[in-house]
Design goal:
The complex is a heterodimer of chains A (about 375) and B (about 325). Chain A contains 14 helices and 8 strands. Chain A has about 375 residues and is α/β, with parallel strands linked by helices. With about 325 residues, chain B is α/β, with parallel strands linked by helices.
Chain lengths: ~375, ~325
């Protein structure tokens, strides 16, 4: 639009910051935040990222051999999930999308539960650890208003707790997300929205998703702060999360953090990303690998060694193997469980269907009860 | 005891539920200061305060989604959708989330929410204010669909819906909001969410309907009575779960059944009822089951609406045909 001929004044303006602490080689670009000066803190984040990546690799292999359902890898995005959960308190509530198993693990969801979930067993969302955390949300962005509702519950009960909702870059195009941002802003709800911007919504790249320069600025229209961080710099993610959580806890309302990362893998095991992006694009992005970046930093600081690395990989593999064996040894639930959680008390017609399902003749075709 | 209207009975039940349980909160568009466009929440903001009654931004999917979050945290949100013409954006939240949170988490998180909405035609409204989407919701596992047809049933069913541990769609027949009057005692007594109500007994033919359509159905029954024909009139009241037993008991007696609803015929809930009769009561039937419903058209504007809404005469015609079948 051309400048209006009226006596126009500028009535609003905004700017979006992009924060990072480590460059791609793990060198500090500025003084690190306090927590990151303690090598034990950084090592804990590093361990969580490595465990998440090890789980990823195993899950893909299992899907390929028919022992897990379709799986969405978080390869290359581990710093986002781990940075988020690393900053949260146990009493906060996480509402994840489907690439945040790194955050779920840090919050106390077990590897066994993750295998159950991705294996198509609802018990995988009956977390024994974070009882109030939401299950993984598959319909894109539809959990954004739930986070506002959880945050409203905290506010009404005067609890110093925060809801943390993770969505992808594609989700920012959805109405649910815009509606959730709007109510979070106008009611100053204690919620932190994180856009895990991995550059691709299946085959649609970020620049075809929206003409907005940043996704962080979507918060501005809803009346709250948004900022970008380097999502492959776990220190930057964790630091921004800590500030946003503290603000929310103190009654300062919501924040939006856009974590810029890159999806090094396919969208899911059912996807073939070579149909829409080049290998050279992907291989170039490996230079920004969040795990290598933090490892370089820790090695340079003398806070990590080759031996510790080997032990960590072995420990991660052993923990995953143990969880996997338990998962494979867990028989599927009976057909009655389809019914038993539909309502607290089953209506009569559903009780009749339940009985019918239990006495129904078995099917020789169709998906097997278990694939071993 | 003074008579009150159906919409006043809704308000009475909301106030009762809020007074009993501090986890009951109300949210929706214009429900606070304005008391709702039909005044269903009139006075509740003043009585219970801004921490219990929220005027939301204008965003229906958000209202439902926010309610899911509140419910998962142990609140009992009662959301108002201003008209059913605007209810469609919430289907995603109801179908993908509210109705299945219990199943998905094996009971760890639950969703005890109620969505109230005025529904149905015959109110001389503009476009998108007269829809009857009950069958869409009745198709969703994990949900309850409740439709009152009198002030007393509105009071008792709404109390039960709010106390129920699972999500409930509570559709209030707009046409009856102020036309139906009844004495309602504020006892706090709920009505069951799985029982149909026999409004009138008769031995020759069974009518089953719900919501505002029962008004015309009862008039048709009066006219049959004048001819010496006994019509039994059943208010289904809860479409999900549907009380097959009460219907079968009636049809065993009468052998003839006419289903009445104002929603479009095809895929309407009448089809489900007819199927149940075919499956479980075929040997009791003396005539084919008849359906009197809205046509498979968009509900027309108010000048043509009376040709769309099933009326007393169409119901009567279907009844006479059913009675004549030998």
């Amino acid at each position: 639009m051309a400048t209006p001929p009226s006596a126009a004044e500028i009535v609003a303006r905004f700017e979006i910051r992009h924060g990072r602490f480590l460059d791609a080689k793990g060198r500090a670009l500025c003084p690190l935040p306090d927590f990151a000066r303690d090598p034990r803190e950084l090592v804990a984040l590093y361990r969580a990222m490595v465990l998440a990546r090890s789980f990823d690799a195993k899950a893909i292999a299992l899907q390929r051999t028919g022992r897990l359902g379709t799986y969405s890898s978080a390869l290359g995005q581990e710093a986002v999930a781990v940075g988020i959960a690393g900053a949260m308190r146990a009493e906060d509530v996480l509402l994840p999308s489907f690439r945040e198993h790194g955050a779920q693990l840090l919050r106390g969801v077990s590897l066994y539960e993750l295998f159950l979930f991705w294996g198509g067993d609802e018990r995988g969302s009956d977390f024994k650890g974070p009882r109030e955390d939401f299950p993984i949300c598959v319909p894109v962005g539809t959990h954004a208003p739930h986070a506002a509702g959880v945050a409203l519950a905290f506010k009404l009960r005067h609890q110093a707790r925060v809801a943390v909702c993770v969505i992808g870059d594609g989700a920012t195009s959805k109405g649910d997300v815009a509606e959730a941002f709007n109510v979070a802003g106008v009611w100053r709800l204690p919620v932190v929205y994180v856009v895990n911007n991995n550059g691709w919504a299946i085959s649609v790249p970020r620049d075809r998703q929206t003409a907005a320069e940043t996704l962080a600025q979507k918060a501005i229209a809803a009346g709250f702060e948004g900022e970008q961080v380097d999502g492959n710099d776990v220190i930057a993610v964790r630091e921004a999360m800590s500030r946003a959580l503290e603000k929310a806890r103190a009654g300062g309302g919501p924040s939006l953090i856009e974590a810029i990362t890159y999806r090094l893998g396919d969208h899911t095991t059912a996807d073939d990303a070579s149909r829409y992006r080049t290998d050279s694009e992907v291989s170039a992005r490996w230079a920004e690998d969040p795990i290598a970046r933090l490892r370089s930093h820790l090695l340079a600081e003398g806070a990590w060694s080759k031996e510790e690395e080997e032990r960590l990989l072995a420990d991660s593999a052993a923990a995953i193997e143990e969880a996997l064996e338990r998962y494979l040894a867990t028989p599927p639930q009976g057909p009655e469980t389809m019914f038993d959680f539909t309502y607290e008390a089953l209506p009569k017609d559903l009780l009749e269907q339940r009985a019918a399902a239990l006495s129904a003749p078995g099917e020789s075709r169709g998906p097997p009860a278990t694939e071993r | 005891m003074p008579e009150i209207t159906l919409v006043e009975a809704v308000t009475l039940a909301l106030a009762r539920a809020m007074a009993e349980d501090k986890e009951v909160v109300l949210l929706g568009e214009d429900i606070g200061v304005d008391g709702g466009v039909f005044r269903a929440t009139d006075g509740l903001l003043a009585r219970f305060g801004a921490e219990r009654v929220f005027d939301t931004p204008l965003a229906e999917a958000m209202i439902a989604g926010l309610s899911v979050g509140l419910a998962a945290q142990g609140f009992r949100p009662v959301a108002e959708i201003q008209f059913t013409g605007f209810i469609y954006p919430i289907i995603d939240q109801i179908l993908n989330h509210a109705s299945r949170l219990r199943t998905r988490t094996r009971g760890r998180l639950t969703c005890p929410l109620v969505v109230r909405s005025p529904y149905g035609g015959g109110i001389r409204a503009i476009e998108h204010h007269s829809e009857s989407p009950e069958a869409l919701f009745a198709h969703i596992p994990g949900l309850r669909v409740v439709i009152p047809s009198s002030p007393r049933r509105a009071y008792g069913l709404l109390l039960a819906a709010i106390r129920d541990p699972d999500p409930v769609m509570f559709l209030e027949p707009t046409r009856l909001y102020r036309s139906a009057r009844e004495e309602v005692e504020d006892t706090g007594e709920p009505l069951p969410l799985d029982r149909a109500f026999v409004l009138r007994e008769g031995g020759d033919i069974t009518f089953v309907g719900w919501g505002a359509m029962l008004k015309e159905t009862l008039l048709a029954a009066d006219r049959l009575e004048a001819d010496g024909i006994g019509a039994e009139v059943i208010d289904a009241a809860t479409l999900k779960p549907f009380d097959t037993e009460t219907l079968f008991a009636s049809v065993q007696k009468t052998g003839r059944c006419v289903i009445v609803h104002e929603a479009a015929l095809t895929g309407g809930f009448g089809g489900e009822i007819a199927a149940r009769l075919a499956e479980g009561a075929l040997t009791s039937l003396l005539a084919p089951v008849a359906r009197v419903a809205g046509w498979d058209t968009v509900i027309p504007g108010l000048r043509v609406e009376r040709h769309y809404m099933p009326g007393e005469n169409r119901i009567l015609e279907a009844a006479r045909k059913t009675l004549a079948f030998a």
